[in-house]
């Protein structure tokens, strides 16, 4: 099954001319699918029907993927299984009947500041990988990074003296983002006292490493965030993008300019960032209702 995925990635790279970023996105979806198939003892493309693909997408949703990300995963599945059917690798295209998830009409979820603090303060850096995991969560919350941006962050693009990290986001656009004081301390501690012990012969310059010395996969980072929140006793479903939402919302609540938040998040259009003003207004209404004598 890995062979067909490799062939497909080569196809979209050479014959379709799709960008490296898009190829990586497709690869991440298909690798997540393979892992899910393995957990469910499915070892052949012909054993996959529409029901199985629907179950996989439901699993991704339960893991914290937004409706927008699920739509992207569905597109990946549709072009991949259309390719398999066209090559006669499968008898039919099980992805064709899939319907896209409804567009989200609700405001983004956030964590309150106390919950974020509880998660961060619950991580014991004396334990194995504690320094790494603390640095990961601090970076998510301090800089509002996307999951792909954190996984792709490299040492040569990190300046802890000045407190900045350079990342490549959607559309291959590069931006420079501040790294706050607590995050700088956590990353510096990890780089000095834990990462050197994780480096192997073929380790590259990824900031955050797996125990085998390679880069961390997005799925593994999701697991780290979820487990650390669970360890802190947070019942809410916590995932990387939730920390990004919380980063933006807390900046706005504490007086940051919306345009500055737009730049840090890497939003091409200010209208995308304006959703956080609605989150803030919702909070203001709650305060008024609870504390005004005629609220």
Describe the structure concisely for a colleague.
This protein is mainly alpha-helical and 295 residues long. It is 57% helix and 4% strand.
Description of the molecule:
The protein is mainly α and 295 residues long. It has two domains: 2-86, DNA polymerase, domain 1; 113-290, hpI Integrase, Chain A, CATH 1.10.443.10. The protein has 14 helices and three strands. It has a three-stranded antiparallel sheet, with no helix packed on it. A hairpin with a 5-residue loop joins strand 2 (164-168) and strand 3 (174-178). Helix 3 (50-62) runs antiparallel to helix 4 and helix 5 crosses helix 10 (218-231). The longest helix has 20 residues, at 20-39.
